[in-house]
Design brief:
heterodimer; A: about 525 residues; alpha+beta; Beta-Lactamase; Helix Hairpins; Heat Shock Protein 90; five-stranded mixed sheet; rod-shaped; B: about 230 residues; alpha/beta; Rossmann fold; Arc Repressor Mutant, subunit A; five-stranded parallel sheet; four-stranded antiparallel sheet; 12 strands; about 40% helix
């Protein structure tokens, strides 16, 4: 079994290679795509959520620290400024505030003694000015809110994330309660952005790795699934070709193993069924063979005696009672027919049992056909169109059977003249038998070689056994030849017999063991 | 056949009563003297008592079968034997020919066919030209119808003798199996070429020094056989 496996696989690959590989690849492809999609969805959503949470956590922490610091600085430093500070004071305080641990830039806005608005800025960070603060934020910071139990202070701290020249910044502003200056701060979020970027990169790489991994997994899964499927396909094909002993090796307990088991059961049932049918067929064939053998013994005795009767009929003395004469003639002719029928049955059973053998000899085909026609007194009814000298190695007795059946059939159904043409084709002899009858109806044509086939039930019982053409065909087949039936364009049926020039390879060589001597 | 020729006497060995009676009837009407036996043992006994000219032998016999009867006869006798085989199964024919039969007829046999075969076999023993020919140590005396090898008489059946005569009449010339069938067996165009092959084998066993590498009766591939004078 295992030995056969390799060969079968190789054979299957040869035969349906491209086609099946394409087909299996598509299933494989589908598996890979589905696996990939699943992996992608999982990886992307996991990384997306992780990224988002991380981003929020990092930004909130930084922001909270900065804003707390800024608020404190505002309270401590800006709050301690006089009501109408000068430009210098503001500037100084802003610088002090910017020096805190969080390193942000500060702008302070206040009205000085003369009612003019003065600005003080910390100077660092590419000259942070009030203009850099979005106007909406400024409006929110300067809006005075009504104080209630829920809202204890009139001014709040507002913040916003902005992007200036492609870099992220945190901008915040607030007003010192009790008429102090308004302060704004600007803090660069660049380090955090860098951290988050590298996080995004690593998440992306992880997603890519997951995709590759899933593709590899899909391949492996596809292989484990498809290999049994492929084996099943090969086995099914073998089964279809008639090798009913094909079985699959069942391993594991999965669905594919179940399928293999089902396949094995089906194959076993099929094999048993076929064996049963073959046995029944064999039995009936043996019965026919035995029966025709049994018929032969009494038939031999009857035939011998019938001839005595026949001789008596032909005697001039007229020793047979004229009243009985028709009865005797009937017995004689029907015995002959029975003989032919049994002979044909024997011939058929020999073909069925495969015991028919070729006895090959080198013959002149046209001589043989002439002799066949002559022996049956058909010379007047048959028009032979052939030249002598076409030699072939075949079984002369079987050629005689074929020709007698074909010509006999043509004479019976087509009527004379029957034309027999012999041609010498490459490596073959082609013999055509054409009659001048009505031809063969199209619906009968496929059945002309069937045993006991009668074109119509109403047709009168012919003299033939109903086996003639079937026997002719079997005799052609055993030579490695063929007979085809067709209708000629000019009307009439044409049977074409094609026999190989040399049929001796199909039989055991009669000269075996003498080859060296024969060539001497 | 002329009226004054001696009536040939036949021995028919056949176990089936009906066939034996029918064939006896038919052959008697054809002008033969027929003795019958139902078993091989009886047949062999009758053979010693009556010395018939020819034996018609059924293959399927109770006790010792036709092939065995044939072989036993051949040990001592060269008289012609025609096998009556119920089956034309090829193996039967081959075994029959190998056991020494001269010809065979397939049942259901027609009396006329059997009669023709009998007469053809009997004619093989008839004398003809009165000359002699020698092929190496083999001397064929056509007048006495004897063959000697190294001065010793060879026991040949009429069929073997006729085959040798036909080959010796055309020394060095190949004769096809179909030709030999017509010349020796007087078969029609449907002769079984295995008759020739089997007879050649038996003949070689008797005339050749080494039957497996013949120097006298040579096979001509694709044609048939020819008789050569050894160098």
């Amino acid at each position: 079994m295992t030995q056969a496996h390799g060969g079968i696989r190789g054979w299957a690959a040869d035969r349906k290679g491209v086609w099946s590989r394409l087909r299996f690849t598509s299933l494989r492809l589908r598996l890979v795509v589905v696996f990939g999609l699943v992996a992608l969805t999982a990886a992307v959503s996991a990384s997306g959520i992780a990224y988002w949470l991380n981003r929020e956590a990092v930004l909130t922490r930084t922001q909270d620290a900065v804003l707390r610091d800024f608020e404190q600085e505002m309270q401590n430093r800006a709050g301690s400024l006089p009501g109408n500070p000068s430009q210098d004071e503001l500037q100084h305080t802003a610088g002090q505030m910017a020096n805190s641990s969080q390193r942000f830039s500060v702008v302070l806005v206040a009205g000085d003694a003369s009612g003019k608005t003065v600005y003080g800025n910390s100077g660092a960070l590419n000259g942070f000015t009030v203009q850099d603060v979005p106007s909406s934020l400024r409006a929110a910071v300067n809006r005075r809110q009504s104080v209630s139990s829920a809202n204890k202070s009139p001014y709040h701290l507002y913040w916003q994330r902005v992007t200036i020249h492609g870099s992220p910044y945190l901008v915040a502003g607030t007003k010192v309660i009790g008429g102090g200056p308004t302060g704004y701060m600007l803090k660069s979020l660049e380090p955090e952005a860098k951290d988050l970027n590298s996080l995004a990169w690593s998440l992306g790489i992880a997603t890519g790795l997951a995709l590759i991994g899933s593709a590899l997994l899909a391949q492996a899964a596809a292989t484990t699934v498809l290999k049994p499927v492929q084996r099943l396909g090969v086995a099914a094909r073998r089964l279809g070709e008639g090798r009913l002993d094909t079985r699959l090796r069942v391993s594991g307990t999965d669905e594919l193993a179940d399928l293999s088991r089902t396949f094995n059961n089906a194959a076993e049932a099929l094999e048993k069924r076929v064996a049963d049918m073959a046995a029944r067929d064999d039995a009936s064939r043996r019965f026919v063979a035995d029966m025709s053998h049994e018929l032969r013994t009494p038939l031999t005795a009857i035939t011998a005696v019938t001839e005595v009767l026949e001789d008596e009929l032909e005697m001039e003395s007229g020793s047979v009672d004229p009243m009985i004469e028709p009865a005797v003639r009937l017995v004689v002719s029907e015995t002959r027919r029975l003989n032919d029928l049994v002979e044909n049955l024997m011939e058929v059973t020999r073909f069925d049992a495969g015991t028919a053998r070729l006895v090959v000899d080198d013959v002149d085909v046209v001589d043989q056909i002439t002799a066949c026609i002559d022996a049956r007194a058909w010379l007047d009814a048959v028009d032979l169109d052939a030249e002598r000298g076409i030699h072939a190695r075949l079984d002369p007795r079987r050629l005689d059977v074929i020709m007698a059946n074909l010509i006999g059939n043509a004479l019976k159904h087509g009527g004379s003249p029957v034309r027999v043409a012999v041609r010498d084709a490459a490596e073959a002899v082609v013999i055509e038998v054409r009659d001048h009858g009505p031809g063969i109806p199209e619906d009968v044509l496929p059945h002309v070689f069937d045993r006991f086939y009668k074109a119509s039930a109403s047709r009168p019982r012919s003299e033939g056994s109903g086996l003639g053409l079937s026997i002719a065909l079997e005799n052609a087949h055993i030579h490695g030849g063929e007979i085809t039936a067709a209708n000629s364009a000019e009307g009439g049926a044409v049977f074409t017999l094609r026999l190989p020039q040399d049929s001796s390879p199909l039989t055991e060589d009669p000269d075996d063991g003498e080859k060296a001597e024969g060539d001497a | 056949m002329g009226q004054n020729e001696p009536v040939p006497s036949l021995l028919l060995i056949e176990d089936d009563d009906a066939i034996r009676t029918a064939l006896e009837l038919s052959l008697t009407r054809q002008g033969h003297r027929v003795a019958t036996a139902a078993t091989g043992e009886d047949g062999l006994k009758l053979l010693r008592e009556q010395r018939p000219d020819l034996i018609v032998l059924d293959v399927m016999l109770p006790g010792i079968d036709g092939f065995e009867v044939c072989r036993r006869i051949r040990r001592t006798d060269q008289l012609p034997i025609i096998l009556l085989t119920a089956r034309s199964d090829d193996i039967d024919v081959v075994v029959g020919l190998e056991s020494g039969a001269d010809d065979y007829v397939v049942k259901p046999v027609q009396g006329r066919v059997l009669d023709a075969r009998i007469r053809a076999v009997l004619r093989r023993g008839e004398r003809e030209a009165n000359d002699a020919a020698s092929f190496g140590s083999l001397v064929i005396d056509r007048a006495a119808m004897t063959v000697t090898k190294n001065g010793e008489d060879l026991q040949l059946t009429p069929t073997e003798l006729r085959l040798l005569l036909e080959l010796s009449r055309r020394p060095g010339q190949a004769l096809s199996r179909q030709q030999l069938l017509r010349l020796v067996w007087e078969h029609d165009y449907l002769g079984d070429s295995r008759l020739v092959d089997a007879c050649v084998q038996r003949l070689r066993a008797k005339v050749e020094d080494v039957p497996s590498s013949p120097t006298l009766i040579r096979t001509v591939r694709g044609v048939g056989y020819r008789l050569d004078t050894p160098q």
